[in-house]
Write a structure and sequence with these properties.
This protein is mostly helical. It is about 80% helix and about 0% strand. The chain has helices spanning about 1-30, 35-55, 65-80, 85-90, 95-100, 105-115, 125-140, 145, 150-175, 180-200, 215-240, 245-250, 250-265, 275-290, 295-305. Helix 10 (about 180-200) packs across helix 11. It starts with a helix and ends with a helix.
């Protein structure tokens, strides 16, 4: 029991802090590498490493047809679209700003769960949604940000990525997937690597040899593969099975703070007063959504791991 609680705490720290840093590393890498090529290399290598480690640890790698289809769906929602297109959008927006946009995930999760479960919103949820929408408006209405070339397209695509990731979170919490979370991550990574590689060819991206990458891009890629991919995504898949989907979405509190701080420190990204106000309003809305009273039955369903 104690080991389980410790693992949950470590997993939350992974998705809070590690994922907050991946906005910076993706931004560094996408300045030199085509986005789908970048994501394909990242997930393919991570997936191969996970499968090798799983084999050495004698984890069961067998997978049913249903589990493979569910892994394919989850991989597309999370990694192919949710992450691959998000990295593409980072060409047009700052990493910290993108993280703030991504912090709207709990709002999307809430709407999707209400649509799926057909349950009315509680008062705190309604307040949270109102604050969240107002915070989003403050965030995207800044003329300095939206006036730059491609920024509006980047913002729109990021919101579609957040929607994809949110639906993926709801889907995985109920889906039949391999029991071992490490193996589940490996399959999703390998599928994403293949699909993103195909996408890269389809969009005629230029594949650049790792020997031609700058030192900072090589470091960013290693950190994305090991920590952002293997460690944090495995922790994410694990948490989706042992705690409620909405609790996992609370990474939206921490990720933007980490991303904004690192973007400001390492990339000299500008933090405007309106962005600070918007983030406070937005994250307050997220707090209201996640602090509402939960019905015991609903919580049990979301928290129970599937066989």
């Amino acid at each position: 029991m104690k080991n389980s609680k410790l693992l949950i705490i470590i997993s939350f720290l992974s998705i809070y802090l590690v994922w907050g840093s991946t906005y910076l590393f993706n931004k560094i890498a996408v300045t030199e590498l085509p986005p789908f090529f970048l994501a394909s290399i990242r997930f393919t290598i991570a997936g191969i490493l996970i499968m090798i480690i799983s084999k050495l640890l004698k984890f069961k790698l067998a997978i049913t047809k249903k589990q493979f289809i569910n892994s394919l769906i989850a991989s597309f929602l999370f990694l192919v679209y949710g992450n691959g297109v998000f990295v593409w959008a980072l060409k047009y927006v700052d990493s910290g700003f993108a993280a703030l946009l991504a912090s709207t995930q709990p709002l999307f999760v809430l709407f999707l769960m209400r649509l799926i479960d057909r349950k009315p919103m509680q008062k705190k949820s309604m307040i949270g949604v109102g604050l969240g929408i107002f915070g989003m408006y403050l965030l995207v209405s800044q003329q300095d940000i939206t006036a730059s070339e491609g920024s509006l397209l980047g913002i729109f695509m990021i919101f579609t990525c957040v929607l994809s990731w949110s639906y993926g979170s709801v889907f995985v919490s109920k889906a039949d997937l391999p029991k071992n979370f490490f193996v589940t991550t490996g399959y999703q990574m390998l599928i994403a690597g293949l699909l993103l590689g195909i996408s890269s060819f389809a969009f005629n991206e230029n594949w650049i040899s790792p020997l031609a990458w700058s030192y900072k891009v090589k470091v960013a890629m290693v950190l994305l593969i090991v920590f952002g991919g293997i460690v944090a995504f495995t922790a994410f898949n694990y948490l989706l099975k042992v705690v409620s989907t909405e609790k996992v979405a609370t990474s939206a509190y921490i990720n933007p703070v980490v991303a904004i701080g690192m973007g400001w420190y390492f990339l000299d990204e500008v933090i405007t007063l309106q962005s600070i106000i918007a983030s406070i309003v937005l994250l307050t809305g997220v707090y209201f959504i996640n602090s509402r009273k939960r019905r015991p039955i609903a919580k049990k369903v979301n928290a129970s791991p599937k066989a």
